[in-house]
């Protein structure tokens, strides 16, 4: 080895160091391959085994759910841009965007669609101000802005900004603004379902979970008092998704109190659902709340026959799509009896 190295013009020889538990135990200078092999055999050995982490697996394929569900589609952004620019030509001077604000608004859309550096991008303070201005347009004109806001809170930088605005109750506390929209029940359904979607998307970034925890009871109370038998399918889908996400959050935090509240709401809400996708999402939330909660299972048990009948009706002719969910929900409810 030394002769070969010297023939190639290499005169310095390597030094091999052997460590154990972070401390050097020996070293070898030079290029003696036999000695190196002997030291490797002497000091090498099997890597220490890491302690095994035992993760208890659920016996059910549907429960508990572990991932949040979001409304992430942004394919309509070009249309949103067109609507806002068209409306900006008609709206009064107080609300109209200046040319500079239009450039800032277009920059927001660029950052939302620039997937290559999405997570590294940041929004300017003036861009947040422009979106707030759009949200303050008359309620029959601000739907496109709400659609953008729904996407903004999925972005890490915007999520941090709006979490801080909520926690410090700043002027652009869009979370408080959206709660007020839900309480104005005379607003168009399109506004309402977009706002419910906005709250579903707050689950994406953990920084926003503080607001969701604090608003938990208020949001479910609003849903129960004003939206329980709502006719709009998109509103019902968004509310079912909100319950689904709260059920996942309650599992992660082992919060039995939240599970009880969600379950009580769902037992009132589910009978009003006749769409397969919405009913399934609500049932997944219900089963997630029931998982390892004997008291909640007892709470749900009297309603199980009606729920089974509702599933048969809603899934008439396609019972195979709901069969496993139906079987597992029944088994889960009766698991502690």
Automatic annotation (TrEMBL):
Pfam families from the UniProt entry: PUL
Alphabetized InterPro entries for the sequence: ARM-like, ARM-type_fold, PUL_dom
Domain PUL: 61-332
Annotated Gene3D superfamilies: Glutaredoxin, Leucine-rich Repeat Variant
Protein name: PUL domain-containing protein
Native species: Arcella intermedia
């Amino acid at each position: 080895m030394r002769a070969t190295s010297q023939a190639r013009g290499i005169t310095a020889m390597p030094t091999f160091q052997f460590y154990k538990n972070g401390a050097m135990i020996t070293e070898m200078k030079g290029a003696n391959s036999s000695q190196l092999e002997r030291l490797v055999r002497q000091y090498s050995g099997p890597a220490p085994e890491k302690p095994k982490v035992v993760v208890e697996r659920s016996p059910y394929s549907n429960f508990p759910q572990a991932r949040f569900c979001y409304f992430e589609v942004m394919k309509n952004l070009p249309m949103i841009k067109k609507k806002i620019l068209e409306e900006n030509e008609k709206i009064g001077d107080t609300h109209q965007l200046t040319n500079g604000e239009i450039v800032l608004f277009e920059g927001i859309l660029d950052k939302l669609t620039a997937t290559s550096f999405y997570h590294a991008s940041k929004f300017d303070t003036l861009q947040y101000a422009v979106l707030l201005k759009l949200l303050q347009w008359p309620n029959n004109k601000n739907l496109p802005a709400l659609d953008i806001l729904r996407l903004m809170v999925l972005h890490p930088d915007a999520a941090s900004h709006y979490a801080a605005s909520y926690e410090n109750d700043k002027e652009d506390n869009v979370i408080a603004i959206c709660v007020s929209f839900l309480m104005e029940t005379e607003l168009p359904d399109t506004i309402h379902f977009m706002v419910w979607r906005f709250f579903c998307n707050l689950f994406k970034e953990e920084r926003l979970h503080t607001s969701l925890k604090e608003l938990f009871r208020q949001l479910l109370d609003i849903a129960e008092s004003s939206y329980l038998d709502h006719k709009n399918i998109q509103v019902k889908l968004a509310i079912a998704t909100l319950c689904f996400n709260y059920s996942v959050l309650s599992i992660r935090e082992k919060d039995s109190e939240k599970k009880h509240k969600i379950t009580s709401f769902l037992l009132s809400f589910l009978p009003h659902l006749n769409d397969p996708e919405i009913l399934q999402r609500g049932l997944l939330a219900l089963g997630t709340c029931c998982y390892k909660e004997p008291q909640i299972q007892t709470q749900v048990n009297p309603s199980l026959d009606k729920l089974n009948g509702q599933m048969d009706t809603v899934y008439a002719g396609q019972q195979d799509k709901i069969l496993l969910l139906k079987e597992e929900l029944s088994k889960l409810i009766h698991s502690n009896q």
